[in-house]
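Discussion board: Methods & Data

I've been asked by a reviewer to show the raw model output for two of the constructs in my manuscript, not just the figures. I'm not sure how much to include, so I'm pasting the format here to get opinions. Each protein appears as its amino acid sequence followed by a line of discrete structure tokens. Is this the kind of thing reviewers expect to see in a supplement, or should I convert it first? Here is construct A:
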Amino acid sequence: MKEASQGLHTQLADLAYQAEHVIDLVLGDEKTVVQHSLWLFHLAKSIRRIKMQLADIDGNSACSDGVDNSPKGFIPNMSYIPSTSIDEVMVGLKDQKEEIICLLTRGSHQRDIISIVGMPGIGKTTFADNVVKSPSVMYHFPIRARCCVSQTYKKRDLLLDVLSHIITVESNTYAMSDSDLEQLLYRKLKGQRYLIIMDDMWSTKAWDDLKLSFPDDKNGSRILITSRLRDVVSRISHPYPLPALSKEESWEFLKLKLFGKEECPQELVEIGQQIAESCHGLPLAIGAIAGFLDRNCGKSKDLWKQTAESVSSTIINDPETKCKKILELSYDHLPDFLKACLLYIGAFPEDKDVPVWRLQWLWIAEGFVCEPESGDLEDVAEKYLMDLTGRSLVIVAKRGSNGKVKACRVHDLVHDLCLLKAEEERFLLPISANDKPYSSFEALDYGVLYEHFNTSNSISYEQYRLSFCVDREQFVLSRPCGPFVRSLIFSAATDMSPSCSYDVSFISSNFERLRVLDLEHINMGSSFINGIELLIDLKYLAICGDIESIPPSLSKLQNLEILLVKGLKKKVALPDTIWRMEKLRHVHVSNHAIFTLPNAEKGKSSFQLNRLVTLSLPYFSLGEKTNETIIKFLNLRRLKCVFSEPRDFSENFCWASELKSLSQLQALKISYYGKGLNSDEWNLPSGLKELTLSKFRLSRDHLSEIGRLQNLEVLKLISCAFEEPSWEMSEGEFPSLKFLELKNLNIIHWDASSDHLPQLQQLVLRNCQQLDEVPLDLVSIPTLTRIEIQSCGDSVEASVREIEEQGIEGINIVIHNSHFG
């Protein structure tokens, strides 16, 4: 029955895509209406027939299943926040954790290897992350880095992954040969006590490829390996098997995922224990079934019973197959819009962190996100992600200072499920370097010769969405095409910087109906894509190149909502015609964007980007023109920008006076290039929730003005010069501040207490060498959970140690060892 339903769903998807294609053609040319009307009539009849067959099958399935999906178009409760996520909680394994920490921080002075082995879904990566984040390990190893090896890998990628945790990897680093990268990594680790995590190793070759880059200075450096293959790691070191959770631990984990600190209703305990036992101690399976119960069954005893019977009947003896069945059960009962959101993650390379802002903007451009009655699409997209993390189908990889998810990823088994379902449902076609015809191409990184490829015929695709993960040369020279393709996402098979430029103009003629085009990993050189203005359906455009300016023809893309430009030179000038692109919601240009104001005589009101909610990184030269530009972004929610002083700048000029007009602005990040502002009035928007100031000169009045921002939750002061040596906070300031970071400051004394920071949760101090101590009264703040210091003076470390010795429950103290080496 399921196979029949799946086959019909696939047919229906194909017909729907074809119908959409014809409708697009009709909308684009009225002359084709008569020509295609008969075809559409027959198509509609086919769709009705298949839907009737599906109704019969799905109706019978629903009767036997007993668990309903959420309604299509359903928007999750906007106040819902998942209590936990699989990356944030670890039940049991306390003894194992202490043993591994001991092996890492004690014992032999020689470089040593510790290997953790276990079946898929047992939580090896979560366990390793939990170990590495323990304060004793963080203090013991000044340098900590990681790479994810996976089943297929490239040595170069691993080297760059490890280096990215140690240095800022720039274009000149990417241009290095593999041998140069090995030597660079060796030099950066030489004389340092380091910890390298090599996650998900499948063969000893990965270790052989990297081991010469890891010096042994007899200082206690360590390599931590995770693998599902015991026979592989046993050739490298003694393997430490990670056990499955016991029955009691499994039930404890399930309860924690479902109820947090609350008690499980008594009538559900026995059934819940049965469900937990059926997962055979696999945290991934327990997390997935917890998400299923929470969203689909609530606290209904009957639905829990049906789930227990379903899980028991589908689970077999093989633990990995067992876990896959539970994941599939969870997927099958997702509402359609969440299925699409989850499957889309299959477009990204396996084992890579996915930036949340990029993923959510793609969801919006694809039309997966339902328009809310109130609020923004971005808020709804965030709730979708929270729903998927709450179901343990998506893992939180990083959180931002505001506590929101910054990057996410999926487990290998979930990624496999995404690819399987995406192909079954004709949702997405993933194309890798191992697929034909690319597997027959010679892999050359630079200077590739055209005669290596037969380019007489383009490779044609009929699918709706394409995700390429191949070498750049292979992609460009194969000149793919597809009349039905609506989305094209390219991820380079290697992480090399796209310094070698390519002509990608064939895309404009080969993919005429594109709505999503992501070419961030291909350098298109100094020339913009020829014919890009022909792609009138584009909603999402991400490009990369040596370009210094964007042509005025960009404004012909009147449906464009998201524009991402990765400029490989310092600044990219945007055309004045951009002000005509009324649907733009997100514009991100790196390194910097230069705006040109339209001619005043053309009318002021018609040149405002009223829908723009995110803008980064504009480069503003202080003056009246800057204020005239800022006022045109009245609905901005997030702004990241640079201000610079012109040669004729007056220190008495009220900088960016129009910032206060941005009443919707919630996050503001400003870097200042100049001698230092001395303006008495800053005009910061009163609704700010996040503020980052870099390279400013700060007076007592400036700090007080910031403190009066009633909604401010995150404050970062970076490389700022305090005009006075002491910062004495006043009562009533910073009433909502939750996160405070002070970095590279000249402050000497800081007077603060719970009266000044009543809601503070995290305090981070970096490179404040002159600061005498951390105020001890901060420990009386009931919400404080973390204090982190790095590269501060001995007196600061001593004061934090004093706080640590008080043993206050709930406060995590992290001190980075900056004195080693």
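Construct B, same format:
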Amino acid sequence: MPVEEPLATLSSIPDSSADQAPPLIADEFTLDLPRIPSLELPLNVSTKHSSIQKAIKMCGGIEKVKEAFKEHGPIESQHGLQLYLNDDTDSDGSKRYFNEHPVIGKRVPFRDESVILKVTMPKGTLSKNNNSVKDSIKSLKDSNKLRVTPVSIVDNTIKFREMSDFQIKLDNVPSAREFKSSFGSLEWNNFKSFVNSVPDNDSQPQENIGNLILDRSVKIPSTDFQLPPPPKLSMVGFPLLYKYKANPFAKKKKNGVTEVKGTYIKNYQLFVHDLSDKTVIPSQAHEQVLYDFEVAKKTKVYPGTKSDSEFYESLEECLKILRELFARRPIWVKRHLDGIVPKKIHHTMKIALALISYRFTMGPWRNTYIKFGIDPRSSVEYAQYQTEYFKIERKLLSSPIVKKNVPKPPPLVFESDTPGGIDSRFKFDGKRIPWYLMLQIDLLIGEPNIAEVFHNVEYLDKANELTGWFKELDLVKIRRIVKYELGCMVQGNYEYNKYKLKYFKTILFVKESMVPENKNSEEGMGVNANKDADGDINMDAGSQMSSNAIEEDKGIAAGDDFDDNGAITEEPDDAALENEEMDTDQNLKVPASIDDDVDDVDADEEEQESFDVKTASFQDIINKIAKLDPKTAETMKSELKGFVDEVDLIPPERTGTNANEHTFCSLLMLKSIFAKRFASTGSYPGSTRITLPRRPAKKIQLGKSRPAIYHQFNVKMELSDGSVVIRRSQYPKGEIRLIQDQRNNPLWNPSRDDLVVVDANSGGSLDRFNKRYSSLFSVDSTTPNSSSETVELSEENKKKTQIKKEEKEDVSEKAFGMDDYLSLLDDSEQQIKSGKLASKKRDKK
């Protein structure tokens, strides 16, 4: 099957070397075109007028369609457009189908603006290409005879995405026909005959109603109960949503055929889904994986693998390492094991874990691998292996500074910095953000305040499903400390408020808060604007603790809502577990040969994009210099200690040492290097200290254009209909909201009659002046009063339909103008002579 070539291709941009200028970005143009709505029907509508008219009739008429386009608000509150597929009636006027109900169409919430193009080509081109528009355009690609003109933009679309339910006809059911002919006709004689046909006393109520003589011409069998059908057979409007995932090992060829290559085996990992007392903890692996392992011992080849892959030998080596690790620590997290198991045998780890451990899917030991025969509910010594999951709030992650501070997760296979132990970057010590935010309790006690709380813990007599062996209050203390310090660290603050930490350690109730929640932070896009030096919380908002703030609560999640500082506590979501652990798949791929070909990302390009001289640390700048000049970077690293304030950059006196002078010169050199290198770079988006770089003073020669203006800021423009577009701007503002644009202008939306021209300056100083002093002038001002006009316009909109009808009737009256008055004058009428103007005569001397 030949592969079709695209009609248009983008030319590749040549690689620009260091001495060449970067490639230019394509220009953006605004299409000042009218906006029109569109209606996508699940019908085969032709271009004939009768077909279009029938489709509109099935939707209830043109007025119903207009009303559907005018609806605003969320989709749930919209009535939508009703499409009747079988809105047929019988000769008596009743509906033919018993349960006819329409398919509801709703407006698209995220408007996908489509451009309608007018394509003009020479006459006869379509006939030469078998009426194929695609082939016709392709044949004219190299000529200038093809003209493409944008006509309009579709910005309002109604789509029908619901399922069309089953429709039931009751023509063959006698009882339904009796009911339809009597109650459906609304005639008294039919009512009377139907009631008289029903006996007063039913001697056999258990028998089928078909035994009653309702229609003497048809005899209903006793197996048909003639029950009324349900009004709607499908209880959901949309098809069931399921989490579909394609086979990750399947590859699609160029001809479209999907093929799965390689060998795959199942790990048969055991899961425990209940924490009740009746739950039995497994003591050995699944029988199938034990059988496969016994076969592998005899044949030296694991079932489902090949002998040249040496899967069994790698599995034995991996089992030896894991048995030693589980002997020291009975409960593990898989991400911790990824850095200990060597890379060459890492592909056998899931099978090895299935042979020596099981997993909990709920409770305080969720998503951990527990050694067979170990029940963490049996002793308090397993309390330190409980897991707590933390998460950085999305509003903080929108800030570039926070994104830079949050470390990137490790790759799937890495090497731990602690030989034979958990990598130190997984531990929480209050000095750096851990790699993985699903933390076990023993990985938190490296922080002194948490260690103090942990050593004073009083365990429960029996472990429960929510808090394990800990009391609710002790877990709340630990969570508060972690959330406070984690929220400070992601914002670059490593100096904690000791009074807050002391308060968190001495909390008396499960739910209480020392600092009122700052509601202004929810409105910000990035870091809280009212932050202080101790953790981005407004300390002046209230110094006294409210009496209502101290109260008991049975739930932990409700108590964690206060003072989160940008970090929250919750159960690990499915996306985080699948992306970071990726151990939910039972199928395991066995590679034919082990190699080190891993797709690595170009770290240089990523660092260059994320590097900002105004937000970079001293070590980041040194590392940047080291890539260009390692010798200079090494000298600066050994002689310089860090950044110095500009006020402290005073040249040392000549009595000082040479080392001080050399250090000062190095600082000036470092400052000058980056001032020149990054002179044209702006700060991070959303920063309050953005300044435009100075352009060199240059005289504009006669006949030359002015210098180019810097458009270096990405501004989110919110249009009047709620849609948001990103444009380049010279003004350093992150968001701009427009109240008057093409989306709500009647000139560009002729199909919408609910739009009015609103004065954008209403409510300003000019409007207030007109309100106050318009009565002082004898001549009426032509400037409309915005407030009163808005009310009048709203009233006019309500009566617009009625006005249109009256305009048709009053056409003849309005056409009676000045010319008609002049025609009434008689031709014989003489004009009355009036007085003459006195002329100014000069006296004779």
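Answer (T.O., handling editor elsewhere):
This is acceptable in a supplement if you add a one-line summary per construct. For B, something like: The two ends are 116 Å apart (CA to CA).
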